[in-house]
Every structure is written in structure tokens, then in C-alpha cells.
Amino acid sequence: MKNLEYAFKSYVGSQNRETSESFIHSDNLFMVVDGFGIDSLADIVKEETCRIVPGAFFSHLSENKSPADALIYAVEEANKKIIEERHKLGEKVAASICLIYFLDKIMYFTHLGDSRIYSFQAGELNQLTRDHTVREEDPLAEKKFADPRALNALTHGLGIHEKPAVQVKKYPVDKRCLIIMTTTGLTERVSNRDIAWLTKKHKRPEKILRGLIDLDKRKGGNANLTAGIIKCGGLTKMMRKTLMIYSVFFIIIAAAGGYALKHSSGGLETQKPAMEKPGIQEKTQSSVKRPAEDKIPQETKKVVVVQPIIPEKEQDKTRQDADQSVSQAEPAVKKATAEKAAADSAPASGIGPELLETADDLVMEWKTAWEKTAGTNGDIDRYMSFYSDKFESEGFTKNTWRIDKETKNKRKAWISIRISNMKITGPTMANHIEASFNMNYRSSTFTGSSRKVLVLVREGNTLKIIGERTY
Questions:
Q1: At what angle do helices 192-201 and 205-218 cross, to 10 degrees?
Q2: Which residues of the chain, if any, have pLDDT below 70?
Q3: Which of 381, 386, 388, 385 is nearest to 363 (CA)?
Q4: How far apart are CA 332 and CA 369, in angstroms?
Q5: What is the DSSP annotation of 155-172?
Q6: pLDDT tens column, 2-49
């Protein structure tokens, strides 16, 4: 389906930070996954699922052209890997997964575990999945088990059964349909009624998602959660930006046209017709009756300036003298103009053109350094050399940013990053340069696309990253 507008976010509640390794959105394929087990093992389960599912799905889809079969194959392949990890580690590990694929106006979806998929269509919220838990599947569960943990235990999920019962369903969507995907970390405290209310209140996926996470925090939520909102038939980020640019452009054109029309109309009203014969002076004709001078208010009297008639030879001489004066002053004028232009172009921050020209090269070197951080022998020092000691981003300092990246990237076999549509702007009022670009990130555990902004500051004779934002 075309024009899918979406927003996804994973939130590590206990550490009060965001992560991006619990969801996938790639070529109309969307997934959320939640790992269960010891924290480090749960992370491995999520990473392995994110690594296996997209490759298995698209390879099977290209061969068989069946989205339903491809979804089943991808889930089964991920399940095999989790079973292997479970036997190898000797620990109980599992994962809950929701998987969606859009083709034309049909949504194919499947799930295992207690992660959920909702649709919001025609003003109504519908839960499309049923939790695979003891509570939901055993009608006498609440009488049998007093412990809530037993009631919430998964009956199906990745890593639980050797051959999971994977069922794929179809759901028709239209241009006004919203799809919500979420793990149990959110639905433990945020009810279906809350989700319906926020979906009605906000139109944009980003605002709905932000509202859901904020509501979970206000209700005391401190668990890891992942959620995503997909708007069918919505405007993509690029389309919204293009529309905004065109809107601003047309407003400027309309304003300029109105301004020109207003002043041209005023000029026509006040313009005096040119005299047909130059050199003939305006004369007062006694035959025209005029009001007495003393009856005309002083401020409305018209003053006619009569220019003396200069002989042609004297006019030529005057013009020659003027031309000579202009030619003598011309070098000085050019010099002053050049100096002013140079002063205007020099940024107040002291970041000269020579550093501005290196900004795009620095971004590409930073990208390469990031790619080389993968694996246990990754070069994190080179990557962090691009960052200022004053770096801050989303609650991270340079030191905590290093720890976070080093911990994550050690578990990745490889990283590949593609950058496009780079734009360098600035210096800003804060004496920073901003490098914004589209980034396609792929690794052995995660695939995703985003718009990233690096905020650069001058330190010595080079640029350093002092801030980083992702949209």
C-alpha cells in the first residue's frame, strides 16, 4: 500500500531511555518484538528476531509471491533460532511478536504471545489479536492460579514450541485506517479505552505514540515497551515537507503579487502624463480660471519646479564631467562593496568557508567510523573521536553515549549505513552548523530508515559533533 505514515518507538523504562532494537519497518513490513528472560538474554532474543525476520520474509516472498506464506516462514525461522539459543544457553528465553505486511488495500498479519495489533477505523477501535496467555486461553485460569505471573504466562511465542501454530489473517484497510502495534509493556496500564481516546484526539502517528507513552508513565509504567502507529493513506514525511514548501512558496508569491498590484495601482493614480515635447516649459495660461491663491490651503498648494533650458553643448560637457567623476569613484565603490560582501558572508561563529566545506566530508568519515564499531573488535575510539566533550543527546553525555554504543555494537556482526539528501545549514544563532540527511541503517540485528541531524561546533581547526537528533 502506498503512502503509509508511521511512527515507532522502543522505550527502556527502568533506564529512562529509548532504544531502536525492538521493531522493524521496511518496505511495508512492520514488526514489534518483546523478549522474555534475563535482561541480557531477552536482548539477544530481540536482536536475533530483528535480524532473521526481514531477510527470511523478503527472500520467501520473492520466490513464492505469497505474503501469508512468507510471514509464516519468517516466524518459523525466527522460532528455530530462539529454540537453538534456548538449548545452547540452558535458560528459559522466549519472545512475543506481531508481524504485519501491507499489499494494496489488504493487511496480512500474524502474532505469537501477548503483543497486540489494533485497528482504528470508522471511529471504532478493534483488537485484532487475542493474547496467547493462560488467562486468555483457559476460562478457569483465575480459579486455578492465584499468582498473576502464572495467569500471564505465554502459551505460544517464539522459543516455546518446536513447531508453533502460526496463523495469518487478512484485514481490509482504507485511507482513514490506523493500525496500532504494541507490546504488553504498554497494555499492562494503558487500557483499550485509553488507546481509543488518544487515537480520536490526535491525527498524526507521532502525537498518538507520544501520548500513549506519556500516559503509561503517568500511570506508573516502568517496564520496557515498544509501540508503533501506522496511518494508511497518510502523507509521508517527505510529502509533508514538500507540501509545506509549496504552501510557503505560494503564500510568498501571493503576497508579492498583492504588494506589486497595490503599488502599481497607486502609481497609476498619481502618475502625471509625460509632456509630449521635451524642453517646453509649463506655462500659466491666463484664460484658465483658478481659485484665488489666498483661498487655497497652504499644505495643498502645488509647487511646479521649472528647469532651466541648458544648451546641448553645455549638456554634453556636464555629462562628460559626470561620467569622469563616476569612473574615478568606481574602484573605490567596488572595493567597498567587496569588503561588505566578505564581511556579510563571514559567520559570527568564526566558522569560515574552509570549515563549512569540510562538513559533508566529516559526516561521511563519521559514517565509516560508525560502521567499523561492529563486533567485539570494533573501533569505538575512532568513532567517538568525532564527538565533542560537551556532547549531549536525549539524556546522553559523551561518556554514556560511548558505553551505550559500545555495548550494542559488540553484539552486531556488521553495520552498513547509507546516507543521502545531505544538507548543510548554518551557522545558527548558537554558532552551530547542522548537517541533516536521510539515513538507511542496516546491521545484523536491525534495519531501519530515519532523518538524522548532526549538530557541529568548531573546536580548534576542526568540527566536532555536539548534538544528534533522529526523526
A1: 140
A2: 1-2, 13-21, 39-40, 234-250, 257-352, 354, 429-430
A3: 386
A4: 51
A5: SS-BTT-SS-----EEEE
A6: 688 999 988 776 555 555 568 989 889 999 999 887 766 788 888 889
User: Which of helix, strand or coil describes residue 199?
Assistant: helix
Confidence at residue 259, expressed as pLDDT on a 0 to 100 scale? 64
Closest CA to 1 of 170, 169, 174: 174
pLDDT single digits (tens) 346-367 = 444 456 676 777 888 899 999 9
For residue 256, what is its C-alpha cell? 508579492
Which of the listed CATH numbers 3.10.450.50, 1.20.120.450, 2.40.50.140, 3.50.50.60 matches domain 353-470? 3.10.450.50
Residues pairing with 459 in the sheet: 462
3-state secondary structure of 375: coil
Asked if residues 9 and 18 have their Cβ atoms less than 8 Å apart, the reply is yes
As a whole number of angstroms, the distance between CA 209 and CA 220 comes to 17
For the entire predicted model, the pTM comes to 0.53
203: number of Cβ within 10 Å: 11
For residues 307 and 65, give the distance between their C-alpha atoms in angstroms, rounded to a whole number: 89
Q: Cα angle at 136 between 132 and 139, to 5 degrees?
A: 140
Spatial separation of the C-alpha atoms in residues 116 and 180, rounded to whole Å: 8
Which grid cell sits at 330?
Answer: 568606481
Cα(136)–Cα(130) distance, rounded to whole angstroms?
Answer: 8
Residue 361: Cβ-neighbour burial (10 angstroms; 0-12, 13-18, 19+): exposed
* Cβ pair 28, 179 in contact under 8 A: no
Residue intervals of the chain classified under CATH 3.10.450.50 are 353-470
By the 8 A CB rule, do 22 and 32 touch? yes
pLDDT at residue 275, rounded to an integer: 46
Contacts of 245 (CB under 8 A, 6+ apart): none
Instruction: Please give the class, per CATH, of domain 5-239.
Output: alpha beta
> What is residue 237's predicted lDDT score, i.e. its pLDDT?
52
Which of 189, 187, 207 has the alpha carbon at shortest distance from 199? 207
Amino acid at 354: E
**The three three-digit cell numbers of residue 314, written as one number:** 553645455
- What pLDDT is stored for residue 431 in this prediction? 78
Residues of the chain with CATH 3.60.40.10: 5-239
Nearest alpha-carbon partner for 4 in 26, 20, 37? 26
